Amino acid sequence: MTGNTTQIVIDLVDLPSASGTQRDTIRRRLRKMGPALAAFAAGAILGALGYARLSVWCVLLPTALLVAIGIPAWRRGQASAAS
């Protein structure tokens, strides 16, 4: 995420002085990377709010979801390895 954030800041600084073709390229790149940065920021904010409200208990739901997804995947891997 550090690379994406750095590139977004560079693009935002370069945008006002860029030529027409460069502006199009910068805008395309910003449209591509912007949603990922916004989702990351939203997740960080929600994680901080969850921790502020629930302390360490806020980790329980994501852990349960990972276990619920991971066990069936692990069993499929074990079954295919035995074949």
Low-pLDDT runs of 5+ residues are none
**Binned strand content:** under 5%
- Given helix and strand content, the structural type is mainly alpha
Q: N-to-C terminal Cα separation, in Å? A: 40 Å
Mean pLDDT: 91
Total E-strand runs: 0
Q: Radius of gyration, rounded? A: 21 Å
Question: What structural keywords apply?
Answer:
86% helix; 83 residues; mainly alpha
What's the layout of helices and strands?
Blueprint: H1 2-14, H2 20-54, H3 60-82
Helix pairs in contact: 1-2
Textual characterization of the structure:
The chain has 83 residues and is mostly helical. The protein has one domain.
Short account of what is shown:
The chain has 83 residues and is mainly alpha-helical. It is built from three helices and no strands.
